[in-house]
């Protein structure tokens, strides 16, 4: 039967495996309400530190150590990735982690870590480099977890599982329309008639002003040219009319002499 308890933050995620024993095949199931540790966050969403998380876990003894399998449900707070509205939701993460027995590490391993040699006997003569072996030990040690005596600390594995399950772009609702690109108003509140057909992008306001000034100057120049052309045309027409009405004086004298 699963055991259900409420624990303090100090020992909430540390389990004593003496109850389980080391006989392969034995199992122990527990359910706990545990406080959330820190550093469970992404840019827009996080699990509040100390918030209640519902944990269900099963421990199974295997030859190498203890296999921990379970799930955790945690509350989330953050902002919508589209409209930046505050939101509250929850996340459920599954985990499966093998904790090795600390006294099962081979002797002579570096700093108590399990030693690994990625070279065979033939390659060792030509390619062996102590730095490569040290790097390989470091990498594998990061991937493996060990019991501390009979104590199993589930916090690192649980934190990794929850952080991987956090949404990268949380939404207040699946069809959130986001913010207006012009004024920043949430489109869900602005309504379907909201728009800025005549609005000018503020980044182009100075250029728009220069364009208006150039347009006004061009219009003024065109008007002045048109006025000058009209005046010149009127003067030419008046001069032609005067010449047609008044014949030259020399012609008039010649006519008078002929008649005389």
Topology readout:
Blueprint: E1 3-6, E2 14-16, E3 27-35, E4 45-46, E5 52-61, E6 65-79, E7 86-100, H1 121-127, H2 130-143, E8 145-146, E9 151-153, H3 155-165, H4 187-190, H5 205-245, H6 249-259
Jot down its keywords.
260 residues, 2 domains, two-stranded antiparallel ribbon, 6 helices
What features would you describe in this structure?
- The chain is an alpha+beta fold and 260 residues long.
- It folds into 2 domains: 3-101 and 147-190, no CATH class; 208-259.
- Helix content is 34%, strand content 24%.
- It contains 6 helices and 9 strands, in the order E-E-E-E-E-E-E-H-H-E-E-H-H-H-H.
- The protein has helices spanning 121-127, 130-143, 155-165, 187-190, 205-245, 249-259, and strands spanning 3-6, 14-16, 27-35, 45-46, 52-61, 65-79, 86-100, 145-146, 151-153.
- Strands 1, 3, 4, 5, 6, 7 and 8 form a 7-stranded mixed sheet that branches. Strands 2-9 form a two-stranded antiparallel ribbon.
- A hairpin with a 3-residue loop joins strand 5 and strand 6 (65-79).
- The radius of gyration is 44 Å and the shape is rod-shaped.
- The N and C termini lie far apart (153 Å).
- Mean pLDDT is 76; it is low at 1-9 and 105-128.
What's the gist of this structure?
The chain has 260 residues and is of the alpha+beta class.
User: In this structure, how is the largest beta sheet organized?
Assistant: 7 strands, mixed
Q: Please give the share of residues in helix.
A: 25-40%
Strand content: 15-25%
Q: Tell me, briefly, the overall form.
A: rod-shaped
Evaluate the radius of gyration. Answer: 44 Å
Q: Count every helix, treating DSSP H or I runs of 4 or more residues as helices.
A: 6
- Secondary-structure element order, as H and E? EEEEEEEHHEEHHHH
End-to-end Cα distance: 153 Å
Q: From the helix content, strand content and strand pairing, which structural class follows?
A: alpha+beta
Beta strands, count? 9
Arithmetic mean pLDDT? 76
Question: How many separate domains?
Answer: 2
